[in-house]
Design a protein that fits this description.
alpha+beta; zinc ion binding; 5 strands; about 25% helix; 3 helices; SBP_sf; two-stranded antiparallel sheet; DNA-binding domain of squamosa promoter binding protein-like 12 (lacking the second zinc- binding site); metal-binding; elongated; zinc-finger; zinc
């Protein structure tokens, strides 16, 4: 049973996401949908319909979920930049020397902090 009133869409050929949440693609993206007699909007974070007053402007995520999302982003951003760095995104170990010398073959070894997959590589 589709949640949006008077929706004639068939979910049998719809994406799995839309079938699981009983909402067609059109109503999942619509700014206003009539559900249970109330003007609502589908929240892409909660995967449910909320009343319009829970959203800011034309946003597709409710205020509560956006606040949590933004808080996590701020937390991760402050952790990744470090507190002692005076230049954003610059590795503190690279401040003294901008030019590195290569080995006898002219290759320069370097490492990327925090990325186990590509821990070391050479520029040659």
């Amino acid at each position: 049973m589709i949640q949006a009133e008077k929706c004639k869409a068939y979910l049998t050929d719809a994406k799995r996401y839309h079938r699981r949440h009983k909402v067609c693609e059109h109503h999942a993206k619509a700014t206003v949908v009539l559900v249970a007699g109330l003007r609502q909007r589908f929240c892409q974070q909660c995967s449910r319909f909320h009343e319009l007053l829970e959203f800011d402007e034309a946003k597709r995520s409710c205020r509560r979920r956006l606040a949590g999302h933004n808080e996590r982003r701020r937390k991760n951003s402050s952790e990744s930049h470090g507190e002692g760095s005076n230049r954003k995104g610059v590795d503190p170990h690279m401040k003294e020397s901008h030019c590195r010398q290569g080995d006898e073959k002219g290759k320069i070894a370097t490492s990327l902090p925090g990325n186990a997959t590509y821990k070391h590589f050479q520029i040659g």
